[in-house]
Description:
A: alpha+beta; 5-stranded antiparallel sheet; B: alpha/beta; 5-stranded mixed sheet; two-stranded parallel ribbon
Amino acid sequence: MPEVELPIGPQHPALKEPVSFRVLVDGERIVRLDLDVSYNHRGVEKGAEGREFPKALYLIERICGICSHAHATNFAKGVEALMGVTVPPRGQWIRTLVAELERLHSHLLWLGVLAHEIGYNTLFMYTWRDRETIQDLLEEISGNRVNYGMNRLGGVRRDVSDDLRSRALEGLRGLADRAGFYSRIIREEQTLLVRTRGVGRLPRDRAIALGAVGPTARGSGVDFDVRRDDPYVAYGDVPLHVMTSSASDVFGRLEVRVREIEESVRLCTHLLENLPSGDIAAKAPRVAPQGAYVSRYEAPRGELVHYIRTNGTDKADRVSVRTPTLANWLSVVEAIQGRVIADIPVVVAAIDPCLSCTSRTTFVDTGTGDRSAMEWDDLVAYGIRYYREREGLP
Amino acid sequence: MAAGPARVRHGPEDVAPEIVRELSERLGGAIAELRQTAPRRLAGTVPADDVRTVLRALRDDLGCRHLSALSGVDRGATLAVVYHLAARGGTVLSLTVSLPRDAPRLPSVTEVFPAANLYEREVHDLFGIVFEGHPDPRPLLLYEGWPEGEFPLRKDWKPRGREGTNARG
């Protein structure tokens, strides 16, 4: 049987960078995966150079719709470090609270997407319903469901009232039960285990060599979390447990995220119960002296890096952004090798790139040049059917 | 499943000054202008020809196993590549390699850090810096119709407004 090239993508509006995968297959087996992320370079880094710091902050927040607070906070704390501004504790704690709520919404969204990819739509409905609790809290705290706009240089824009605090704590109590439930079912539910255990193997040393970050790295036993290792905002002052799994496959990445949901609920509760009093922001100057700072942040998908250079004006000279998804691509390329076509949706979804939307797939037979188009949904259905037959299920 | 130890309050001790001592002991003068720029942040410069050797030594002898990021920078007279390495204790070591603007070339570090693969391709696309020996030097970020020889993050590059649009010049 000749090797066949199987292109997937590039169109799917949920990801900031549309991505196309070209998969070389020999029968069912994947020989090689090649990726193309060139479809939508938006020039945000160039745009940030021409804008005053407060406007650049507004732009940087829009790099990602799902982890917008990660980008905004990372940029703000980097510029504050260069300006020599100290954010008051209450401002830092509110930033941390929104960061953990964002991690919760992102992980719950991901868990739903993964469940959907394997045809487990009950879990998808459960997680997205629970995610609404978080979305409502984020909206009450910031005024927005996405792009919260909580940051300003020097602190945060809005305070958290005592009344809101008690309502948030009530919502979190309900979520703690749900997080425990998810933690239990991922160990018992065969639907999940069959599709994730042993799938998308990424040994620990390979995860390190390929520069994997976040749950992708921690799911392969790499004990690395910027919140603990290079603490920022309030992480130096709160009890935080870093979750790792030695499973080193899609199940490992799943286990880490589900445990992080439990941990983030605990952390949010701690932050709300112990919120320090005082100001929420300090006054920031208009200009930053000449300098350079590497700002790091543990985004829901892993280590996020902003390298900010300033030149004594009110604009940054350079803002270099390395997103966690870019760091995790090479791991997908490696983890998919030798697996079957039916595993593409879960292995790709396991790094959480939000790819699973509207991508279409084209099969090209290299022998005859024949093309046949396939929707991403069809590929997902194919994966479900493949495992159903393999497991001898009706 | 293992849960790491609960963190010590108020953050880890800043080991950056200790790392500076170790670097000068073990690498001699390989890293010039080595200095601490902020808590847990170090910076230095390395000549283009030495970058592979220095990064290998950092990985093997100093336990810097994670290349966090790679940044291209336009400094006017020169271009530069900055390697951000994660060292112990949450320290980030940023090493700058200066390159002449008319011939910006330096060795690829992909054989030391496979993680540099996509990062080097990104810097090539945006700054026109050539990484010699890169195993797969195709364009990464800019689409297939992007004109050759245009590097949008160089300071002298300005977006060209198309006729009939409001694109800003």
